[in-house]
Amino acid sequence: MDWLQIDTGPFDFGQHWQWNWTEVCGSEGFKIWDVESTNFGNCFSILCVQIPVLVIFSAVSAYYCGKPTHRVFRTKGQLWTIWLRCVLVLLMAVLPIVEICLLTAEADKINEPVNYVEYLQAGVQVMTWFVHLGMCITLRNRLTLSSRGPALAIFLWNLTFLCDMLLFRSSLLHVDKTKLASDIGFTFAASTVAVQVFYLSTLLSSLWASDGLTAEQHASMLDSTISGHSYSQFQEDQDPYYLGVAADGASCLSRLFFQWVTPLMKKGVDAKLTGTDELFDLPQQASTRIVSRRFNDALSGQTGQDRKQRTLLSALHKSFGVQFYSIGVLKLLTDLAGFASPMLLNGLVNFIEDKSKSVRTGLIYAAGLFIATTIAAFCNAHFSYLVSVVGLKIRASLITVVYNKILKPSLSSLSELNMGAIVNYMSTDTDRIVNSCASFHAFWSIPFQIAVTLYLLYLQVGLAFLAGLAFSIILIPINKCIASKIGQLSEKLMECKDDRVKCVSEAISGIRVLKYHVWEDHFASKIKKLRNSELKYLKGRKYLDALCVYFWATTPVLISILTFTTYTLMGNKLTAAKVFTTIALLNMLIAPLNTFPWALNGLTEAWVSMKRIQRLLLVPDVDVANYYAAFNDFESRRTDVTVIGASFEWGHSAADENAPLIQSKFTLHDINIEVFPGQLVAVIGPVGSGKSSILAGLLAEMDKKCGSVFMTDLKDGFGYVAQQPWLQRGTIRDNILFGKTYEHTRYSEVLEACCLENDLQQLQRGDLTAVGESGSTLSGGQRARVALARAVYQDKLIYLLDDILSAVDLEVARNIFSKCIMGLLKDKTRLLCTHNRNFLQNADWIVVVENGCIKAQGHPEEILENFGQIIEEPKKLASSLDTSANIEETSKNVEPSENIQEPEGDQREEQETGNIRFSVITDYWCALGHLTAVTILLSLLLMQTSRNLSDWWLSYWVTHISHNSTSVIIYQERNSFLGWVEPKAIEVEEVTFYLIVYGMIAGLNSIFTLVRAFLFAFGGIKAAASLHTKLLKSVLRGKVNFFDLTPAGRIINRFSSDTYTVDDSLPFILNILLAQFFGLIGSLVVTTYGLPWLSLVLVPLLPLYRWLQFYYRHTSRELKRIGSVALSPVYNHFNETLLGFTTIKAFRASERFSQTNELHLENSQKAQFSSMAASQWLGLRLQFFGVIIVGSVGLIAVVQHHYGYGVNPGLVGLAITYALTMTSLLNGVINAFTETEKEMIAVERTQQYIRQIEPEPQGETMPPLSYPWPSQGVIFFNSVAFQHRSNVPFSLKGVTFQTHPAEKVGIVGRTGAGKSSLFAALFRMNEIEHGQILIDAVNISNMGLRTLRSRLEIIPQEPFLFSGTLRENIDPLGQYSTPEIWSVIRKCHLEDVAFRLGSIDFTIGGNGRMLSVGQKQLVCLARAVLHNAKILCIDEATANVDNETDQHIQTIIRESFLHSTILTIAHRIKTVLDCDRVLVMGDGVVLEFDTPDALLQNPDSHLHRLMHEKL
Predict the structure, then answer these.
(1) Residue 1211: which of 1088, 1078, 1095, 1097 has the closest Cα?
(2) How far apart are CA 410 and CA 622, in angstroms?
(3) Which of 595, 636, 685, 1511 could cysteine-pair with 849, CB 3.0–4.6 Å?
(4) Strands 1477-1482 and 1304-1309
(5) Over 50: is that where the pLDDT of 398 sits?
(6) pLDDT of 181-228, one tens digit each?
């Protein structure tokens, strides 16, 4: 370097730097003032005036490029002005390039070098004006309302104009017509001033132009415009932000650069992404309906001559094969362009080492690097985009085919599959198959990359590459072994996760029962036990992941050591070209070697998932033609329903496959039924006899073993109402219409017939009231009536009604029977399962079922005489009273349900917007632990420092190695990397010295990497365990109101999807983020250290990088939130379908539900497509950053080398090697940062529940009682006012009454009277507003909830059973011995259940699905009998059992709770008559409280009126 001479003698700062200003500035040197021309010196003007101004102007322009501002709508005049300014700025950027090229050519002719300052001036000018061009483009729709731009930028532009005027004056004074170079300089100085004058004119013209409009002003103007036009119905006319179809009408360049995605990014920055309507519509070829139809045709063999059923794989190949395989061409081009970079690097470093080569050679290499990285950028971005598009198509196809499949088999066939597994088919398995798209191309691409890279390595270092390769090959089986072990642990982890989520789901669904029985701690302990098992496998997997991370991070350094050590020991000499070309090739080799096992694992998982879905597809569909007999065979019988000699059988659950053989499947034997048109056939029988199974057999939901079944009108379906009503989320009207057109007259008739009119009148929104999940916002009777109304409105020919009258009270049942069953449906064929004797006499035929067989059938008179004990009750009143009746309200005066929740429409899930709050980050930091978090960061810093130091040492090695092959004398440079020290000579063995130092650095790097990997694994597990524990504690301790208002699926999502993210995804991506971030910082430091001039390029790129990440982060974060919200309806609809698919198929609504699924899926696909497009938009632009850096490094190195700047080949090779990785690092940091921010949403959602769920009071305000309590069971309500929530009316209004010791009290009243609220207040499900509740003179408000509830017992209206054995369901806390449990089982008539199961220690299935509804209620009774509390509350516990079972239950209660106080919400009159006193409730107050005899003898009493009301 001639112009900067470095003295290697003793250090003296004054002599150290000797500037050759003549070479830098020309013959006149560096003058501040030229006396002869009375002007500033030209070099001074450039270096000290113009360049500082340009650099500041560039920085300010870059700042405004990335500054987030609101959108501005400009006039056409403004836009034309800005476009003209952009053209002028582009011209300003091109002029210096042309000028320097002409000067260089002229200098070569006259053999005079161009002054260095002119190169610097041209470079800074080009950089400044290109950056300013970006600001001008941004000004089109952002920054300021005026088209002039920001004031600061205008001020700095004025300074550049003055500088250009100053330089123009200088060139004018020094112009020499005899020298072409002088003439060129003057011409371009004049041209620059001329362009600047035109630029000034664009600024002045904007003074008279109108300003642009803000988004709000534009929207208001648009609204006023649209309101004046009646026919502005197109979405793009009504919404200026409407994006339209993705890439529709986009030009080739727009598609090439993903410019069509920019409007989406702008909407994200403007905070206008609020839902799927704000996103791109899917292209037609990617729409869910078209893709799914094409795939279904391929799967069923309908696309060609082949008509046989294809396998899932062959159908995927048929549908997407051509597009999928052709994408591989882009992957191949990406790989080839990647191979070109190390070769061009080799040529460039060789050029720098050999000063004799022409500069043209170096420029060719630099240009080649630029072009190769550009091609790789385009090909890689479009490959990723197209693979993602194919993946979306496959996802749509698989989800649709799985959904449609579950609507085709029978319930019996589908029960062979685990219901949880079916949900996983749509989620986990589909995701695995979609993710395998990239794995497939990696499967062929990686071996190709490895083969070519090995050949290129051989060309560089010969056979020495085998040392590094051997180490890499050794790692392959190690990685494969680790991957296999991780796969095994993952399977066990998923099993534990399924069990945990299943347990959480049961706890949430039965949360009221949990709180009634004080089972929160038991279930928390049970869930924690499952969680610990899950964490055990998670720890194993995470620590194995840490080992993989360790191998992945240290492999580059270790392979480099082995390769270069072997190469030097073989007697070869290292050169910069060989070292850094080899390092670049090794970097290319390491990634495929590490990725290949994961690609194989991804393909293996996809194959397993494909077989799992194939297993579902192989489940036989209901063959209607085979199941039902043909019409011709039964035409002569003139029946609507005929069953002859048929036997039906239920399948068994996959979850019970390992159960003992004694668990036999329920079977119906020798069923013979004939039902003629218009007949009403009643089906009766004891609990568990098979009544519901007969209806299931008629609906083809059981396996038919033999016999014939004939039903008319198969195509139109049947009106089916299940015993446990199934409703959808939506409004009451939506549930009743069930997809049919609204007809007011018909609709009103149905409401009246089903006794819903008065209910709807009491609701604020009427039939538009929202129905919660599974009808949770309605009472049991209302759910049954809405389900009945749905069936009636469908106007079917045959109706199958499963015990619909047991859920309502007497008068409502009478009205339904007379107005609906015998009214609107009088001409229909009806099969009714019922226990109610009152209505059997109106039947045309009665069928008696017992133990799976038809015991008898005939006319009502005959059957009731011979089998009356099944349904008959002893009569204790005069014949004027109907003792088998139910007692509550009449249809003439129905009050709203006291528990009803009336949300204002469909409640959407709460969704955060904007940035992730800092508190979320601090919460995760605290979950990690301060010490753990700090240690992780420190280990990352040390790991990256040692990694960069090892590469620097290699460059130092190849640069300072002496030509003497035995020893070297090393002088420590004063300006070296390590700083200045006193110089001293060290004579050592040359190779040994460098290898020892290199090995020591590599060893430290290995240690720090290992520590970092395992610390991160430890911290992630610790944070996951902490957050789940807090979440579980918060949820289980929450008030019941939270569960009433929040869908169970939403809560479970926190324990499944969000917990999985915190467990696995978040630590994984956070690890990548920190590693990429520290890697990027290290690369920037090393690159700028090797080529300091590169900082001139990096400085303006930094604000652009910030602008890009700002754009992307805002948009991607909102897209993630939209995607999460859009995915919920897909799974919610799927779960609803699983729960009600018998009803759906019976109504022949499968096609409509399939279309609804496609609609929900389309919205989810739109979110995923937009997120993917945004990712590729960012990826391509970030790769351009890398391209610019690589091109700049090459160009700077060539220029410095050619003009004698003393370029260090080792540092240049190091800088280019790091520059080649800069693209992936830049992309990786933003992607990882964005993904981390997305995954942090899971922590945010978890913290919402941890912080916002209001807990129940946990403490006690009174000292523990020193005596057994309660001893008498006396309950005293004193002016109690109670409401379920603060925004609903009071359900108890000053209630006052007192019981006697061991008294049996019956509670009656119409719906909404406050009966259930008495129990809610007694158990303190919510705190009373005022008044007192005393039990044995103790105020329960001062007691702890656990103490209070543990002393009480309740039998709820709807039985709650959880997964486990019969023993666990009867005695969850394990407090009683086996003999005690067997005693209770016999007492509660559950011996048959126990014997059928084989033992009390065998499972009864989820929600007790192996038991009938009545048997479930008996299990709940057994719990109460076993507990034998002093106070027992019974909430209509006998509503779903027949009269005989009800008699047994009443007898058990009388005998087992002889000394207990019993509060019974009465459902049957007999229950009321057995009570000591009756409490009549009405509108939240006590109407009367006396003995039954006294009340019935008083004709004015409310009880008397209820008992004697007639239709």
Answers:
(1) 1088
(2) 6
(3) 685
(4) parallel
(5) yes
(6) 556 667 777 778 888 888 887 777 655 545 555 555 545 444 443 344
